[in-house]
Specification:
With 232 residues, the chain is mostly helical. The chain is 72% helix and 3% strand. The protein contains ten helices and two strands; from the N terminus they run H-H-H-H-E-E-H-H-H-H-H-H. Strands 1-2 form a two-stranded antiparallel sheet. Helix 3 crosses helix 4, helix 5 packs antiparallel against helix 8 (161-178) and helix 7 runs antiparallel to helix 8.
C-alpha cells in the first residue's frame, strides 16, 4: 500500500473516533499520536491539515495547534515549503527515549502507588496474555502491540496521570523506531518471555527485583536497536 493510501486510511480512522463535542488541540494531538503509536501513520507520512480538519471536524487552526504540539514532542517534523511529516527517529533519539524509559518504568515499579492495586496489576497481566495469544497465532504485529500495552500498564502502576501522558508520547516515538527494525518477529518475540517474568515478579510483590529485571531488559533492547541502526 502506498503512503498516500496509508494516510487516507488513517484519516478515516481518525474520523471514526471524532468526538461529539469539537475537540481542543490537545485532544486532536492525542488522536493523531494514537494513530502513530498504533503504526497506522508510518515514518515519512505527510499529514495534510485540510484532511485532518475534515476527518476530525475541527478548524485548521485547531489542527495547526495540535501539529505544533506533536512537533515539539518530536513525533512530527515540519519541512519548510513541504508540510508536516511523521518523523524518522535517529540513533540519538533512541538513546534519549531509553534514558527516559529507564527512569519512568523502573520508577513506577519502585515507587508506584498502584503496585498493590489488583486492577492495575491485572492490566499488566492482560497485556502479557494478549502477547501470548498473538504469538500463538503468529501475529507478530499483535505481539508488538501487546508489548506497547505492557509497558504502558507498567507505568500505570505509578498512579500518575502526568507519567501516563509522558509514556504515551514515548511509546509513539518508540513505534516509529520499531518501524525501522528489519524483522518484527525477531525483535519482539524474545521480549515476550521477559514480559512474563517481570509480570510474575510484580504479582509476587517482588518489586525491586522486577525493576532490576526491567532495567536490564531496557538496556538490552536499547543496545539491540542502536546496533540495528548502525546497519541501516
Amino acid at each position: 500500500m502506498g503512503t498516500d493510501a496509508v494516510v487516507a486510511e488513517a484519516l478515516a480512522s481518525l474520523a471514526a473516533t471524532r468526538h461529539v463535542v469539537v475537540p481542543a488541540s490537545e485532544r486532536v494531538a492525542a488522536d493523531i499520536r494514537d494513530q502513530v503509536a498504533a503504526a497506522k501513520l508510518p515514518v515519512g507520512a505527510r499529514l495534510p491539515e485540510e484532511g485532518l480538519g475534515r476527518a476530525l471536524q475541527v478548524s485548521r487552526n485547531t489542527v495547526r495547534e495540535a501539529l505544533s504540539q506533536l512537533i515539539a514532542e518530536r513525533v512530527l517534523v515540519r519541512v519548510p515549503n513541504r508540510g508536516v511529516f511523521v518523523v524518522q527517529p535517529e540513533v540519538d533519539d533512541v538513546r534519549d527515549v531509553y534514558r527516559s524509559r529507564l527512569v519512568i518504568e523502573t520508577g513506577a515499579l519502585r515507587h508506584g502507588e498502584l503496585v498493590d492495586d489488583a486492577q492495575a496489576v491485572a492490566r499488566v497481566r492482560s497485556a502479557v496474555e494478549g502477547g501470548r495469544a498473538s504469538a500463538a497465532r503468529s501475529d507478530w504485529t499483535g505481539v508488538a502491540d501487546a508489548n506497547q500495552f505492557f509497558h504502558r500498564a507498567v507505568v500505570g502502576l505509578a498512579g500518575s496521570p502526568r507519567l501516563d501522558r509522558e509514556m504515551d508520547r514515548l511509546l509513539a516515538e518508540m513505534r516509529l523506531v520499531f518501524q525501522r527494525m528489519p524483522e518484527v518477529r525477531a525483535f519482539h518475540e524474545p521480549y515476550l518471555a521477559r514480559n512474563i517474568a517481570i509480570t510474575d515478579l510484580i504479582e509476587r510483590g517482588a518489586l525491586p527485583e522486577a525493576a532490576d529485571e526491567l532495567a536490564a531488559y531496557l538496556v538490552v533492547a536499547r543496545d539491540q536497536i542502536v546496533e540495528a541502526y548502525a546497519g541501516l
